[in-house]
């Protein structure tokens, strides 16, 4: 179990590192999805019980996993998917206009 | 069903039917948008007038397991802001946008649905979901002009705000892990047994996430870029509602979940006030250098939200009242300024400071409105900005934050300098003859409405203060809030 939490921490930090340091827009979007998947993994772990089965209300199944984090994970997947889609749309638009994905060359704003 | 639930459902439904009308019935578009906005205003007024004492609406009779919606005076204030800003926004945008109106209004309604959901919900995960709804549709609106700068700024906005959401989501998941619930009434009860250090870590995650969304100074870089080339009526809602809703969520989470005692003990109140002071000093200095009016107003927004932070973080009753009053006033003042700039950019394509030279003589009444609103935002009597700033200074002095009170006065002079620069440019004689047609009534009416509110709320501050003075009861002592939510 502990190893799974370590994996969450590594994935989270890796994603944040990717977003902060990479210059390529596609790689930044990758970083965002990595962070998102680490959080979904964390949600799964929060509800997990050893030997637990699917949450079905029946006497046959005594140990069941917590269903709420699974519902939350589903919502997070949907939100993450739409955010990634919008980001990729913008990446396509930027590439058509600037002919580059390097963040240093995309500078029409003076900020 | 109860009216408070319709506050969330109606904009969602309208967005859905606008999508259908785009495909099949193009003719009813105008009636659908304005009619729905008027009905929405009516529902909002009903809900606001019933916001005291607070009520809980349980959807589907599931009790605490299901989705609960709660109206208390603090959320009533935000609904009041939607009521004031939304109809002028609709009327202004009808004329301002020349193409693709359907998409624009679909996203505008979705954004308002997200914001009203944020202020009404009592569930931590729903708060996150509604925040994402409002952020995504806000990004779509800011992208609407499809210019190079607009896309670049929006990409920054989306990356930064997604990063903020991740920290908030992480904190939400950890809260569930520690307490086993997401209901805002049950969390504080379960939080009592949790060690101090773990609670501090959770609070840091929440504060960091929301600080990105609010745009406090080291994390502010996306904000002016997102404003620079977006449709100007959207900027009114963005600075008035989207940023404020993040402030709302932060205050709700800190005051209800952690409680005022913990905030005091962990030093969060001092940090909040200090952060606010740093933010507005730097934001004023940065605003001074800007030549683009949108960017100037964006930096001014950052500074004003720092004032709000100071008011809300001094942690006394007077501070909460002052901060909440400034939330309302800033929405109105900044709305007026943006709408005037919007009219200039509509009729002359003028968004740079040099373009508006001499317009004070071409549009006398509009320019006067601009002057009124900018003097109000600087904080001169007898306008509304003066009232709330004065209350913030008073509350800071009373709570012992003398340096905050002093620097607010310094900040007033700093903001006076850059607003005076704009006003002087506005009234400098211009030799060129400009052929300008008079802007139509649907552009001027919303502007004058918001401009006159600046004066009315300055002269008769008791109008909004009737609602606002009830806010601290349910924030300072989270026991009342919890009792109502558990009992309802």
TrEMBL record, chain A:
Transmembrane stretches, start-end: 6-21, 28-48, 68-92
Membrane topology according to the record: Multi-pass membrane protein
Alphabetized InterPro entries for the sequence: CPA3_antiporter_subunitC (IPR050601), NUOK/Mnh_C1-like (IPR039428)
Subcellular location: Cell membrane
Keyword annotations of the record: Cell membrane, Membrane, Transmembrane, Transmembrane helix
Family (UniProt): Belongs to the CPA3 antiporters (TC 2.A.63) subunit C family.
Record protein name field: Cation:proton antiporter subunit C
Phylogenetic placement of the source organism: Bacteria, Bacillati, Bacillota, Bacilli, Bacillales
From TrEMBL, chain B:
Pfam families the UniProt entry points to: Proton_antipo_M
Family listed: Belongs to the CPA3 antiporters (TC 2.A.63) subunit D family.
Record InterPro entries: CPA3_Na-H_Antiporter_D (IPR050586), ND/Mrp_TM (IPR001750)
Keywords from the named record: Cell membrane, Membrane, Transmembrane, Transmembrane helix
UniProt cross-references to PANTHER family, sorted A to Z: NA(+)_H(+) ANTIPORTER SUBUNIT D1 (PTHR42703:SF1), NADH DEHYDROGENASE (PTHR42703)
Stretches that traverse the bilayer: 6-25, 30-53, 73-92, 104-121, 127-145, 157-178, 198-222, 234-255, 267-289, 296-315, 327-348, 360-380, 400-420
Stretches assigned to the NADH:quinone oxidoreductase/Mrp antiporter transmembrane domain: 122-415
Cell compartment(s), UniProt: Cell membrane; Membrane
Membrane topology summary: Multi-pass membrane protein
Protein name: Proton-conducting transporter membrane subunit
